[in-house]
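[step 3/7] fold_predict: job queued, chain A
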Amino acid sequence: MEPLPPLAATGIGSVPFLDETEAVQLILDHLPEMPFWPQMAQKGFWEDMVSQGCGGLPLIIRDAEKRVVRLNEAQDRDEALTHFYEAALAGDLETFALTPGEASGFYGLMSALQGRPAAAPAFVKGQVVGPVTFATIVKGLDGKAILFDYELLQAVVRGLALKAAWQMAQISAGGRQPIIFFDEPSLTGLGSAFLQISREEVISLLTEVISLAKEHGEAYFGVHCCGNTDWSVLLETPIDILSFDSYEFFDNLTLYDQPLQKFLDRGGYLAWGLVPTSPTAPAETLEALWAKFTEQVQTLEARGLDRARLLSQSLLTPACGLGYMTPDQATKALETLAALSQKARAWQG
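[step 4/7] structure written:
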């Protein structure tokens, strides 16, 4: 695969817009090198991250009335798992496709890219809910997370890998290289009573989901976590990109300078979440965000990381999805992100 363009800007997922054509055009205008398909979360429950992950998975249904994804305990378990593995082992990616009704932004971006030269953009970013987050949020009628149902968890991991593979195939069909993030907000609870799973189990689940997706083609794989976590766990998985909220939580990452060095040595990229996305965050000027970024890079440099390598193996993103912002705030965030990318490249020289 071609190396990723240093200091290119991309997005995380959700946007606050109701019109996918408008959202896609904004993304292509501001992030032309590495556009992402927008999750149109304001359009309804079906476009929710977890809801988008459940199509094709066994024993799991959307409860639109209660706005939850849950275990369907009325379905025959053996029969459901048999049908699932028949499709999964046959490599039937269409079983795990996103539909226009649940991912209008994906189809909007793919349509907008038709007719454009494959080199513009050469990379397209997609996203899938990560297995830890999905299996933590989805519960049975007894309220117990399916994270503790080993048989079903293994199916979920394989199914989410195939949902990633379907996106990879769609992006590759247009002559572009796919970048797939597994979004893992639940990892902010790692090591607490809220997420009773060991670091070894997290590493195993993420390693497996990426390995299974890789069986279907080449892509860059990242994990996005929008809060504090044990970053050494993610850095031990085979991810190509570590996506983190550098606006709020950079200081925590500095505790892991040695694992970061090993990650960069093997060719990994850092995706810096520079632009705040909380609607209650203070208004930040471009200059203030730029000063924060340069200070953070210099902090890592002082801990022994080479600045030139660091910049050449970095991408820039918002801190998280834009879905909780107003449309005006989200548009401004994309404008600011694009400007930061330009300044960073000038700094890189």
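[step 5/7] annotate
The longest strand covers residues 123-129.
Residues 20-348 form a domain with the TIM Barrel fold (CATH 3.20.20.210).
exit 0
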